Amino acid sequence: MKRGIVGGLAALLTAGGLIAAAPPAGAGCLYGGPVLSKCDGPIQPDGTWQRCVAAPQLVPHGASSYLVPERRCDVMGPDQRPPDLGFADPPTHIDG
Question: In whole angstroms, what is the distance from residue 36 CA to residue 72 CA?
């Protein structure tokens, strides 16, 4: 019985290690630059997709201030007018 428990624990730890070593899921996202992240959802049948952008927002607090991430999502695609140039860069779908 002890061998079964030890063997099961070893298999569980091995599987956990493989999962922890896997690359992070970043398909469809860009990181860095003037924004924290820019991620695109799946392309819909009409050719549009949702883009979510997280950017730092300065929040004053007494004699100091701090940055808080602010997330904004909008629809992108053909015949869609982007809300602003920074949001729409790149103008095509981000593929991982």
Answer: 12
Q: Any idea what the Cα angle at residue 58 is, between residues 70 and 40, rounded to 5°?
A: 25
Answer whether residue 80 is part of any domain.
Answer: yes
pTM: 0.62
Spell out a b/e string for 31-47, using b for 16 or more CB atoms within 10 Å of the CB, else e: eeeebebbbbbeeeeee
CA distance 28 to 40: 5
| 52 lies in some domain | yes
Q: Looking up tokens 């003037």, which residue turns up? A: 34
42 domain residue, yes or no: yes
pLDDT (tens digit per residue) in 56-93 = 888 998 888 988 889 999 998 887 776 665 677 888 88
